[in-house]
Amino acid sequence: xxxxxxxxxxxxxxxxxxxxxxxxxxxxxxxxxxxxxxxxxxxxxxxxxxxxxxxxxxxxxxxxxxxxxxxxxxxxxxxxxxxxxxxxxxxxxxxxxxxxxxxxxxxxxxxxxxxxxxxxxxxxxxxxxxxxxxxxxxxxxxxxxxxxxxxxxxxxxxxxxxxxxxxxxxxxxxxxxxx
Length: 179
Fold this sequence. Notes:
Helix content: 55-70%
Shape: elongated
Number of strands: 2
Strand order of the largest sheet: 1-2
Low-confidence stretches: none
Structural class: mainly alpha
Largest sheet: 2 strands, antiparallel
Number of helices: 9
Radius of gyration: 26 Å
Strand content: under 5%
């Protein structure tokens, strides 16, 4: 797990060595285990680790590479959270998956499953994204694995799809395409 040493020390990534030393001394006194009022051994250990990394030029340069990668990931997560359409698109994909599995169950109640590769092809959703949707639908109890490892819609999934299908004008088109 990545620890943001700059945030931990409450300093800028551009802080010079004097600033790092000054802030370290402040936090070290504050969180030292011998300090009866504000001592915190785990916090003190984190402060020491951050200081030891940031005061060494080589370690800091290596850490800064990881920091920039983490910053990029945080930026991607923030942008993804701001994009309100992301959740809406996910709902559509999940409804499409349920529709496909519904049609399959209706066609052959004794062999209702669709494999991962076929679901990927039919849904048009890349495998790395499909995994999230399958996990979600499985956790909600809307789909499950059959004995041979394929995915099939459950009774709960059929009920959920039926209720939500009325709100989706594209559901009929998708079902016609799948049949």
